[in-house]
């Protein structure tokens, strides 16, 4: 209210000289100026009395609403900061859990790789032994086949040579001796 009166006083000091020198006859009409100022002051007083309380209550309620809104915003900011800190803590925990899981996964992978390498080594050794056994069997079979072939070849050659050298009589005689020896 005091601000309104102060503003009105400044306004009057600025406008008064204009009204004082604005008379029709060119002279100063103090009476007209007095009545005009009086009517203006009366109008301002009536206006302030009539709607001053409404304006004051409107500005006070608006001020209270703004204060409440600011208070709510501050509370919301505090709550948001608390949530932000909680999320930062959660993210920190998640980061540490993630690094722990990563370490565990690497360790498990290393153990699995080592176990696979051991198993592969065993498989390789098994296949090596199996290959050696197979090779030995094949060598023995080849040696047996070669010996058998050589033996058969030798028998064939001996038979051919004997047929050339031994006549039919000698052959019968040898056969008979052989048959006799079988019985003994």
Polypeptide structure, described:
- By secondary structure, the protein is mostly helical.
- 93% of the residues lie in helices and 0% in strands.
- The protein is built from three helices and no strands.
- It has helices spanning 2-20, 30-165, 168-183.
- The N and C termini lie far apart (160 Å).
Brief characterization of the structure:
The protein has a domain at 141-183.
What integer is the average pLDDT? 82
| Estimated helix fraction | over 70%
β content, as a range?
under 5%
Radius of gyration: 65 Å
Structural class: mainly alpha
Low-pLDDT segments, ≥5 res? none
Find the count of extended strands (DSSP E, 2+ residues). Answer: 0
Q: What is the CA-CA span between the terminal residues?
A: 160 Å
List the helices and strands and how they pair.
Elements: H1 2-20, H2 30-165, H3 168-183
List keywords for this structure.
rod-shaped, 184 residues, 0% strand, mainly alpha
């Amino acid at each position: 209210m005091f601000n309104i009166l102060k503003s009105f006083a400044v306004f009057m000091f600025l406008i008064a000289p204009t009204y004082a020198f604005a008379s029709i006859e060119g002279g100063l009409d103090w009476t007209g100026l007095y009545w005009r100022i009086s009517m203006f002051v009366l109008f301002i007083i009536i206006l302030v009395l009539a709607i001053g309380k409404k304006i004051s209550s409107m500005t006070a309620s608006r001020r209270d609403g703004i204060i409440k809104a600011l208070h709510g915003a501050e509370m919301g900011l505090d709550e948001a900061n608390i949530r932000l800190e909680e999320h930062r803590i959660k993210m920190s925990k998640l980061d540490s859990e993630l690094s722990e899981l990563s370490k565990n996964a690497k360790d498990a992978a290393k153990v699995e790789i080592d176990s696979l390498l051991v198993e592969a080594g065993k498989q390789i050794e098994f296949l090596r032994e199996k290959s050696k056994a197979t090779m030995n069997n094949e060598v023995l079979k080849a040696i047996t086949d070669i010996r058998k072939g050589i033996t058969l070849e030798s028998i064939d050659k001996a038979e051919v040579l004997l047929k050339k050298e031994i006549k039919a009589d000698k052959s019968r005689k040898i056969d008979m001796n052989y048959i006799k020896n079988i019985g003994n």
